[in-house]
Design a protein that fits this description.
single chain, alpha/beta, eight-stranded mixed sheet
């Protein structure tokens, strides 16, 4: 049996991480999920075997929680799961080496610091895929993490790592001090969460305007981008909206790419497919419409952005955008172009552009989408809502979402099309992550998903209303616009910043020790 102990530890960590992850309700397993891997690191003497066992754990975690990417792109799913598993092993391998070289104190410190630094880098580099940031695990348990308004998800990641390390230490050799420390670190965040939970009912009762959220339920594979069905799609959106609206409606929210016909941004109002949309808005001049749209922008003969594509027949350059647009009666159109793009599908890192044709075969785009340089907000005189037009994948970036709040947003509006993943955990995880953004910013969330799940989430992360998957529907809800900024909004993810500084200090220490050793040898 001892021959297979390392394998069992590796399998156990991977499986515990899977079973803890949303949309599972076995969240508490996360507090012991890393212990088998810590035991493996303590037992395994061969650095290469340790890396391989880590790779197995991370592969199980990735495959068990994000296998649903397969529904959109099988080849891309395989590539993403393998690549992300490999990347996750790097901080673990580094911590293992530091532990063997400098002992348990520095080893444990490096485990925390390297992992948190990895999460920060994975949130901000060109191959960003932060779906499995550890702090996301508590998305189905918002009552545990009301203190995310201070720390963001980085606090949750730190909590997970500290509890696992302390329980591991107790397992190896229990004593009173260790037990008190483990219990304290586990329990105190629950106490803090209880103390920080806001009262949402009073705000809801005071709201005197409402938002209508539309879920048209249009199949993205067979119908959505078929121009022959565009008129019917737009009629469906308008009918669902008008059935739910009343005299107090001030915002109507449609999902990502609800307007599916690609159009130049300066010609939207002239496009014949979209005339019913403008007629709808003019019939309801008290309403602001926010919707997703496929759009283009021309730059003439100048290639103004790195993502600009060339029209070979005219010699001009243009960008394609996954956009949102605000439409209100007697107001100019306002656009926001999605800035956080899905790697491999919507964008390619500059260092991988030579693989563009390969990624296209995986379901991606060779040219890539253009982006806005910064977040934008939508506001109109007729509406009290200043919306944050968050498009799909952007909603998993907590610190990016704070940029909308800095610009005055008082309501988070998420537009998404999760139909690509079919009825799998993908769309449910995506919904749950929106609850984290509500807590971090203390703003309500209106979420319009093409095929579901559309929802209203209050500023404590509680889902107040929703519509099920694969159902055409609309939600009308009195949502209070929320002012003010949380500590997290004002200061960002300070824990990630501290981790980066400590990682730099550890690496510098390692370099100096190596240099000292080399000098002494001479």
């Amino acid at each position: 049996m001892k021959r297979y102990t390392s394998l069992l530890y590796s399998l156990l960590t991977g499986l515990l991480l899977v079973f803890a992850w949303p949309d599972s309700y076995f969240t508490a397993l996360i507090f012991i999920a890393w212990i088998p891997l810590l035991l493996l690191a303590d037992k395994e003497k061969n650095v290469y075997r340790f890396f391989l066992f880590c790779l197995l754990s991370m592969f199980i975690w990735n495959a068990g929680t994000t296998w649903w990417i397969w529904n959109s792109t099988p080849e891309g799913a395989i590539g993403a799961i393998i690549a992300n598993s490999f990347l996750m092993c790097l901080p673990l391998w580094g911590a293992y080496l530091f532990n063997k070289k400098y002992g348990n104190v520095i080893g444990v410190t490096s485990f925390i610091v390297f992992w948190l630094s990895f999460e920060y880098i994975h949130l901000n580099w060109q191959l960003s895929w932060p779906w499995l940031t550890l702090g996301n695990v508590f998305a189905t348990q918002p009552s545990w993490i009301q203190w995310y308004e201070i720390t963001g998800v980085s606090g949750g990641s730190l909590w997970v790592l500290l509890v696992n390390i302390l329980l591991f230490s107790c397992y190896k050799k229990i004593n009173r001090k260790k037990l008190i420390a483990a219990v304290g670190v586990l329990v105190l965040p629950f106490v803090a969460s209880f103390a920080l939970t806001p009262n949402a009912a009073e705000l809801e009762a005071a709201a005197n305007t409402n938002v209508v959220i539309v879920q048209p339920n249009i199949d993205p594979y067979s119908e959505k981008f078929d121009m022959a069905s565009t008129e019917g799609q737009i009629k469906k959106l308008i009918d669902l909206s008008e059935q739910a609206m009343d005299e107090n409606t001030r915002l109507v929210l449609w999902p990502e790419t609800a307007l599916p016909v690609g159009v130049w941004q300066n010609e939207v109002q002239q496009n014949h497919y979209y005339q019913p949309v403008f007629e709808f808005v003019n019939r309801h001049p008290q309403v602001m419409l926010q919707t997703g749209i496929e759009a283009y922008k021309s730059y003439g003969t100048n290639k103004e952005t790195i993502t600009a594509r060339k029209n070979e027949s005219t010699g001009t350059y243009y960008d394609a955008f996954n956009s949102s647009v605000m439409i209100a009666a007697n107001q100019p159109l306002i656009f926001y172009n999605k800035s956080k793009l899905v790697p491999g599908v919507e964008t390619l890192p500059t260092f991988l552009m030579w693989l563009a044709d390969v990624f296209e075969q995986f379901g991606g785009t060779t040219g890539g989408y253009g982006t806005d340089r910064e977040a934008n907000v939508f506001k109109a005189p007729v509406s009290p809502y200043v919306t944050a037009p968050i498009i799909c994948y952007e909603s998993i970036y907590g610190e990016y979402v704070t940029n909308y709040i800095h610009k005055g947003s008082n309501l988070l509006t998420i537009m998404t099309n999760d139909g690509w993943w079919a009825n799998t955990p993908g769309h449910r995880q995506h919904l749950q992550y929106a609850r984290l953004r509500a807590i971090e910013t203390r703003k309500w969330v209106a979420r319009s998903a093409n095929t579901g799940i559309s929802a209203v989430i209050d500023h404590s992360g509680t889902i107040r209303d929703s519509r099920p998957w694969d159902t055409p529907a609309a939600i009308k809800f009195a949502i209070p616009p929320m002012q003010g900024e949380t500590f997290f909004v004002r200061n960002g993810a300070l824990i990630f910043g501290l981790a980066l500084l400590l990682m730099g200090a550890l690496l510098l220490y390692n370099f100096l020790m190596m240099f000292r050793k080399k000098v002494l040898k001479k």
